[in-house]
Amino acid sequence: MASSRASSRKEHLVETALRLFNEHGYHATGIDTILKEAGVAKMTLYNHFKSKDDLVVAVLKRREEWFAEQYRQKTLGWEKKPAGRLQVWLEIYEEWFRSADFNGCMFQMGAAEYSDPKGPVFRAIRAHKERTMKQFATLGAEMGLKDPISFGRQLMVILEGAIQGAKLFGPEPAIETMREMVRHLLPYRA
Q1: DSSP one-letter string for 64-109
Q2: Is the pTM of this model over 0.85?
Q3: Residue 113's Cα: distance from chain center in Å?
Q4: Phi, psi (deg, nearest 5) at residue 145
Q5: Regarding the domain delimited by 57-185, which CATH topology (the fold level of the hierarchy) does it fall under?
Q6: CA distance 136 to 130
Q7: What number of other Cβ atoms are within 10 A of residue 45's Cβ?
Q8: In this structure, which of 5, 31, 105, 111 has its CB flanked by the most CB atoms within 10 Å?
Q9: What is the pLDDT of residues 119-158, one digit of tens each?
Q10: Annotated DNA-binding ranges (predicted)?
C-alpha cells in the first residue's frame, strides 16, 4: 500500500510539473512552485528525483509516452498502409495544435533552456528526437520511398517548424502548410 501511495505521489508530481513547465517554461518554474501546486513536501520530491533535472527528464518521458499513446489509440485494431499511418501522425499533430493546452513543444523549449549537450535534459531531448526521426524513416521505408532516412529527417523538420508556426501564428496556417509540405515529400517513391 505504501509503494502505491508513493507511486501516486510521484505521478502527481510529474503531472503537476508537466503542466507548469508547459505553461511557464523550465527555468521559470521553481521547485517550490511545483511543490506548492502539487501539495507535497520537498522530501517527497527528493525521495523520487535526485534533482530538478531528473524531474524534467521524467516530464519529457511522460510527454513522449503521451504521443505514443495517442498513436496507439488511433491505430488500435486496424492495419493501415504506411501512408495511412503517416496521416495518423499528422492528425495527432493537428489535434495537439488545436488543443487548449498547446503551448509549443516541451522538447524544443527544453533544448533552448538546457543547451549543454552533455547534460541529462539535453541528452533526453536528443534521444527523443532521434527516436522520432528513426520512426519516420522506418515509415518512409515501409512506404517504399527512395531515401527513407532523408524522408525521416525532412518530415522531422517539417513537423518541428509546424510546431513553431502553430505557436506563433495559430494552428490553421501551420496545419495547412504542414500538410502541403508533406504532400511534396510523397512523390519521391522508389
Answers
A1: HHHHHHHHHHHHTT----HHHHHHHHHHHHHHHHHSTT--S-HHHH
A2: yes
A3: 16
A4: -75, 150
A5: Tetracycline Repressor; domain 2 (1.10.357)
A6: 10
A7: 21
A8: 105
A9: 999 999 999 999 999 999 999 999 889 899 999 999 999 9
A10: 30-49
